Amino acid sequence: QLLINPVHRCRDVEHGRGLAGAGTNCLQAEQRIPISKDVITSSSASAMWFIRDVCGIVCAVITWLLVLYAEFVVLFVMLLPSKNLTYSIVNGTLFNTLAFLALASHLRAMCTDPGAVPKGNATKEYIESLQLKPGQVVYKCPKCCSIKPDRAHHCSVCKRCIRKMDHHCPWVNNCVGENNQKYFVLFTMYIALISLHALLMVVFHFLYCFEDDWTKCSSFSPPATVILLILLCFEGLLFLIFTSVMFGTQVHSICTDETGIEQLKKEERRWAKKTKWMNMRAVFGHPFSLLWFSPFSTPDHGKAETYQYVV
Predict the structure, then answer these.
(1) How many CB atoms lie within 10 A of CB 311?
(2) Angle subtended by helix axes 276-284 and 222-256, to nearest 10
(3) Closest to 189 (Cα-Cα) out of 262, 130, 133, 248
(4) Which whole-number Å values give the CA distances from 88 to 84, 93, 95, 124, 196, in the listed order?
(5) pTM for this structure?
(6) What 3 state SS string does the chain have?
(7) For helices 222-256 and 54-72, what crossing angle results, to 10°?
């Protein structure tokens, strides 16, 4: 259930006929107008979603190239030249599985509608069809001319209002919002895991090469091997720290049911408070299962839910 915070900008407010033009309406007592979620759900929610932003596309491509570089070093520098077949099979299977899940989560986070409100639906004809009573108002975004539910914010990159928008992430070339937060959390988690796994393998490989002949521990020359391993170590350490912090902040945001923008703006809490477990289930689906960790499982965000506007 979402509630709109009163915004003291009457130009963003459509009033009921009886009180149209009265500036004091913005401060009147709260009333609720139940409106179906279909009204504020974009028709692109079930279609392919892709943001045509040059910076975001470049960052997304870099993300894939970095994962593929790690894949190359792990396979061709460390695992294939290894004499221990069991070690190579176990670590190769684990690393490739985590890398596949990370890239799948990245694709889902990038190509899923984050919760965009239909653009341009705040027309005079449509608002009149809502049959607002005197004193009732709905808020609209002056930038994309859409009916703006509570906890929705306008993204200047996506050029849309996004429900429960947390932030816009260039690495996934998309906003993190109500519909794709699960995939973003999984992406940060799997990247952190493969970064940690790669770092551990680099340490073991260095120890192995120091004890053995460097010419035998890799199919590349010793200088090339060292350079490749150092670059992977640097990449793994950097992204382990970055994605671990992002994962922690996202889980905290979900548990407290407060988005990053809401925390930054210190917005007044006007929605029902729920337990941490209920908040987790609202994002990942319910009941708890292994599907929580699958980027191929679409969580149920409550399609029958009715949004309410405070007026």
Answers:
(1) 24
(2) 120
(3) 248
(4) 6, 8, 10, 65, 17
(5) 0.82
(6) CCCCCCCCCHHHEEECHHHCCCHHHHHCCCCEEEEEHHHHCCHHHHCCCCCCCHHHHHHHHHHHHHHHHHHHHHHHHHHCCCCCHHHHHHHHHHHHHHHHHHHHHHHHHHHCCCCECCCCCCCHHHHHHCCCCCCCEEEECCCCCCECCCCEEEECCCCEEEECCCEEECCCCEEECCCCHHHHHHHHHHHHHHHHHHHHHHHHHHHHHHHCCCCCCCCCCHHHHHHHHHHHHHHHHHHHHHHHHHHHHHHHHHHHCCCHHHHHHCCCCCCCCCCHHHHHHHHHCCCCCHHHHCCCCCCCCCCCCEEEEEC
(7) 130
What's the token pair of residue 95? 């690393």
Q: What local confidence, expressed as pLDDT, does residue 123 receive?
A: 82
Q: SS3 for 146-179, per residue? A: CECCCCEEEECCCCEEEECCCEEECCCCEEECCC
| CA 193 to chain CA mean position, Å | 18
CA neighbor of 173 nearest in space, from 65, 53, 56, 62: 56
d(CA 262, CA 258): 6
In whole angstroms, give the CA distance from residue 189 to residue 71.
17
Whole-number pLDDT of residue 265 = 81
Token duo for residue 96: 């490739």
Q: How many CB atoms lie within 10 A of CB 68?
A: 12
Check if the beta carbon of residue 109 is closer than 8 Å to that of residue 187.
Answer: yes
Query: Residue 204: phi, psi to the nearest 5?
Result: -65, -35
Residues found in the chain: 311
Task: Report mean pLDDT in 10-residue bins for the chain, 311 residues.
Answer: 36 45 34 49 65 96 97 94 91 97 97 91 80 78 86 91 94 95 98 98 88 76 90 97 97 93 80 88 90 92 46 35
Q: Which residues are catalytic?
A: 169
